[in-house]
Specification:
Strand content: 5-15%
Order of helices and strands: EEEHEEEHHHHHHHHHHHHHHHHH
Bound molecules: carboxymethyl coenzyme *A
Radius of gyration: 24 Å
Distance between the termini: 57 Å
Strand order of the largest sheet: 1-2-3
Number of helices: 18
Largest sheet: 3 strands, antiparallel
Shape: globular
């Protein structure tokens, strides 16, 4: 970071101002280093929602929201999605470089040989209600991993950190598939080491003791692409949560459980489930003929209705992941002979209408990755309430890469925001009879 440029802060009431260093990244907006602001002026900054705040330094993922560009370690998502598989992408996010053939083979072996979960986990699952939302089960079971793998929880030990990262990436598909099997009352399916990461997940989801799952390469590749597109996304709400939880020195399993909880919300990872529910409802109400009424409701601020799968805090141009997801949608529906899938057609019409509407144009609202990911997942046979778990599975590597980057930073401090206090000033407690 070069700090030749300075930013000067002055106050209209003549209070003493202050000067702050300005740093440039390799790309992206410069940042004003205000760490000494309070010491120098006795004032805080106020930025709820982090609209203008860079909370950390990172070298993992870069988004240019105006260009619609997403880079993992410098590589555009469009290239990674066609040239790499998910585990290569994981290696890239964790290590900073794409693996050589030998590095990839060793990484794949490490992940593959950690896919099984502790047998006692199966009994832990029995404690959940069968009708629990799978994200509730995932939050609980990921958090519980720290109780099962407490041999590697020294966060200042590089090897412990690495083995925890591998365990999380490897076991997440097993836990998600277990959450599904538990919800439908089928026995858990153990992982198989002769299958690739995504094929193994599909088998754990869809095989049963009476019937083996036939791996379909097109569908496996589609799932792998969903995982690549969701693998990381800079300092989003769940990643920032993982960093904040980790900043106190909490163990990685607890931190990732916090990430899972944050992802669950409909403004974040829960949008894929909410989007498919929205499309289903619109279809039930009359489909394309009702788009006009629906869009009118979305534009009415009092209705509380949003066009799910549209809009993004950072992308003010097309979300590049949405384009790739729409492509995958075509591939999967063609493979399954579902070219005329009414929901896909409805989604495309809805997208077209919204993109031509002034409300969306002026606010720069474009489809995000979740607009089409639900249709793909549905076609793969994944139930709607499991969509966000698939997102969590994919994002685990991004969370752990960010957590690891933070722990390795010698300047790392516990995250502790301040506030603009608007409550009562000091007052006296009155005896109960006088209140
Ligand atoms: N439908 C209708 N209006 C919208 C939408 C939408 N989906 N998104 C934003 N707006 C409006 C919003 O009402 C506001 O209007 P106005 O200026 O008149 O008050 C304006 O656009 C700016 O929106 P904002 O809420 O201030 O933007 P934000 O950056 O705080 O929120 C968002 C971003 C993703 C939470 C929001 O766009 C949203 O709720 N979208 C729907 C949920 C969704 O698809 N989420 C998935 C995000 S991508 C996956 C992920 O990374 O998690």
């Amino acid at each position: 970071m070069s700090n030749e440029l300075k930013a000067t802060l002055t106050f209209s009431d003549g209070s003493p101002g202050a000067e702050f260093p300005v740093y440039s990244g390799t790309i992206g907006p410069d940042v004003i280093d205000i760490r000494k602001l309070y010491a120098q002026t006795g004032k805080f900054t106020f930025d709820p929602g982090f609209m203008s705040t860079a909370a950390c330094e990172s070298a993992i993922t870069y988004i240019d929201g105006d260009k619609g560009e997403l880079l993992y370690r410098g590589y555009p998502i469009e290239e990674l999605a066609v040239s790499c598989d998910y585990l290569e992408t994981c290696y890239l996010l964790l290590h900073g470089e794409l693996p050589s053939a030998d590095q990839k083979s060793r990484f794949v072996t490490s992940v593959t040989y950690h896919t099984m979960v502790h047998e006692q986990m199966t009994r832990f699952f029995q404690g959940f209600r069968r009708d629990a939302h799978p994200m509730a089960v995932l939050c609980g079971s990921v958090g519980a991993m720290s109780a099962f793998y407490h041999d590697s929880l020294d966060i200042y030990n590089l090897e412990h950190r690495y083995i925890s990262a591998i365990r999380l990436i490897a076991k997440m598909p097993t836990l998600v598939a277990m959450a599904y099997k538990y919800s439908i009352g089928q026995p858990f399916v153990y992982p198989r080491n002769d299958l690739g990461y995504s094929a193994n997940f599909m088998r754990m989801m869809f095989a049963n003791p009476c019937e083996e799952y036939k791996v379909n390469d097109v569908l496996v590749r589609a799932l792998d692409r969903i995982l690549i597109l969701h693998a990381d996304h800079e300092q989003n709400a769940s990643t920032s949560t993982v960093r904040l939880a980790g900043s106190s020195g909490a163990n990685p399993f607890a931190c990732i459980a916090a990430g899972v909880a944050t992802l669950w919300g409909p403004a974040h990872g829960g949008a894929n489930e909410a989007c498919l529910l929205m499309l289903n409802e619109l279809q039930a109400q009359g489909g394309a003929d009702k788009i006009g009424d629906f869009i009118a409701k979305v534009k009415d601020k009092h209705s509380g209705v949003k066009l799910m799968g549209f809009g993004h805090r950072v992308y003010k141009n097309f979300d590049p992941r949405a384009k790739l997801m729409r492509e995958t949608c075509y591939e999967v529906l063609n493979e399954l002979g579902l070219q005329d899938d009414p929901l896909f057609k409805l989604a495309m019409t809805l997208e077209k209408v919204a993109l031509e509407d002034d409300y969306f144009v002026t606010r720069k609202l474009y489809p995000n990755v979740d607009f089409y990911s639900g249709i793909v997942q549905k076609a793969l046979g994944i139930p709607t309430d499991l969509f966000t778990c698939i997102f969590a599975l994919a994002r685990t590597v991004g969370w752990i890469a960010n957590w690891n980057e933070m722990i390795s930073d010698p300047d790392q401090k516990i995250g502790r925001p301040r506030q603009l206090f608007k409550g009562n000033v000091r007052r006296q407690v009155l005896p109960i009879g006088q209140r």
